[in-house]
Specification:
By secondary structure, the chain is mainly alpha-helical. 57% of the residues lie in helices and 6% in strands. Helix 3 (41-57) packs antiparallel against helix 5. The two termini are 29 Å apart.
């Protein structure tokens, strides 16, 4: 369960309950493992892409800054599914053969897409004015005026917020 608490301007995300919920994906991967002997590689890949990966990526645009430990747990689940689909013991070989991107790359791409939607105004009301351009802050016409205004962060905790992480993903 994703818990959002909106307090004036801040957005606090508790990702542990969400990651615990997502680790239940292991049950689906176990089901895929038990069914695998009756499936072709293509069918197993389609089952993963349609039933398991969407669960891993649900709301990843918002909770994408979940931390390295939780991110590694999710990545381990994907690698385990890849080994089952290809029927190999080497997860790197499975990821290359299936041409799956790692979940962190996919999360960052989703966050960059969400930022673009926020800039264009195609997002929920809460996010409409979340990101501002340098030109609205300074009022001057400079070379940097068409870039997003960087968030001011002073602590490591602030660097783990969606606002800061989304700003970084937008420029990658």
């Amino acid at each position: 369960m994703l818990i959002l608490q909106i307090k004036s301007v801040s957005l606090r995300l508790e990702t542990k309950p969400l990651v615990k919920r997502l680790t239940k994906v292991g049950k689906r991967i176990g089901l895929l493992r038990r069914l695998r002997r009756f499936l072709t590689s293509h069918s197993a890949n389609v089952i993963y892409l349609s039933m398991i990966r969407p669960t891993l990526e649900y709301c990843s645009g918002v909770w994408g800054c979940c931390g390295e430990v939780n991110s590694n747990k999710l990545e381990t689940l994907q690698r385990r599914a890849g080994r089952i689909v290809i029927r190999t013991c080497n997860s790197n070989l499975a990821m290359e053969a299936l041409k799956w991107e790692d979940l962190k790359t996919r999360r960052n791409d989703n966050i960059a897409k969400l930022v673009k939607k926020c800039i264009k105004g195609h997002c929920p009301q809460f996010f409409k004015n979340y990101f501002t351009y340098n030109r609205t802050v300074s009022g001057r016409s400079t070379r940097q005026c068409n870039k997003l205004h960087p968030p001011s962060v002073r602590t490591e905790v602030a660097k783990r917020t969606f606002y800061y992480h989304a700003w970084l993903c937008h420029f990658q």
